[in-house]
Amino acid sequence: YVLENPQDVGISTVREIAEAAKVKPNTFVRMARQVGFDGYDDFREPFREAIRRGAVSFPDRARWLQEIRKSGALGGLYADLVDAAMRNVEETFAGISCESLTAAAEAIWASRDVYTLGVGVNNSNARNFTYLASTGMKQFHAIPQPGSVAVDDLAWAGERDVLIAITCRPYRREVVEAVKQARQQGVTVVGISDSPASPIIRGSDHGFVVAADTPQFFPSSVSTIALLETLLSFVIAVASDEVVGRVETFHKRRHHLGMYEEDPE
């Protein structure tokens, strides 16, 4: 039963797994000891680790989270989430060189138009990047635009333009297709994904792999956001002094319009 249903082991108590396998709970305890573990909890840990690494489906990970809540082990979940967030950021930047970020930033700054593409959870990441960039630069566009599709938004893009595409497993087909179409049109592609084998990394001029592991049932965005913030900082660094002036003007205008709550005296 374990060999055929490994995902169930990571999300089930010994009583639940025994009932599913139609044996007594003590049978699983004896089996765990027979193969070298102290008990069922130790035996279950490698299966839980597979869930943390994202090797199982979203629904199974959601059930695993519920199991943690029922057992009162939210302290352990908290520790796992914090550890995953910090580890993801460290692993992401350990695999990215300053030179590769500089090359991507220079391509972005030298472009005519920059399209940032993300759907699902990465839609907000792409739009946040575009929003921040637009405080000092005019050529950034988040796609797909409302009521449109990404390939249509790229209809007039060409060799002078850049597409920043973001997707993690399970890879979104519309992002993959947009990258393919952009390449055919001569657009420079900056790909951000969770594997060197990702279809958008393979089709990118500048590819960045982010670690997205999490105990949650969806890919973590922590390292993606950190990378996008860093990439934007590099773009500002290689840009002209005019951009800095625009950022200052943008925020002065907001203060003048009363958009910010002023700090108390």
Explain the overall architecture.
- This is Silent information regulator protein Sir2.
- Residues 1-54 form the HTH rpiR-type domain.
- The chain has 265 residues and is α/β, with parallel strands linked by helices.
- Helices cover 57% and strands 9% of the residues.
- It is built from 13 helices and five strands.
- Strands 2-1-3-4-5 form a five-stranded parallel sheet, with helices on both faces.
- Helix 8 links the parallel strand 1 (114-118) and strand 2 (140-143).
- The longest helix is centred in the N-terminal third of the chain and has 21 residues, at 74-94.
- The model has no long low-confidence stretch (mean pLDDT 89).
Read across the widest sheet, the strand sequence of neighbours is 2-1-3-4-5
What is the CATH third-level topology name of the largest domain?
Rossmann fold
| Number of E strands | 5
Helix content: 55-70%
The sequence of SSEs as H and E is HHHHHHHEHEHEHEHEHH
Pfam family, one: SIS
Domain HTH rpiR-type: 1-54
Keywords: DNA-binding, Transcription, Transcription regulation
Organism: Roseovarius nubinhibens
Which secondary structure elements does this structure contain, and how are they paired or packed?
Blueprint: H1 6-11, H2 14-21, H3 25-34, H4 40-52, H5 58-70, H6 74-94, H7 98-110, E1 114-118, H8 121-133, E2 140-143, H9 150-153, E3 162-166, H10 173-184, E4 188-193, H11 199-202, E5 206-209, H12 222-238, H13 241-256
Parallel strand pairs: 1-2, 1-3, 3-4, 4-5
Helix pairs in contact: 2-3, 6-12, 7-12, 8-12
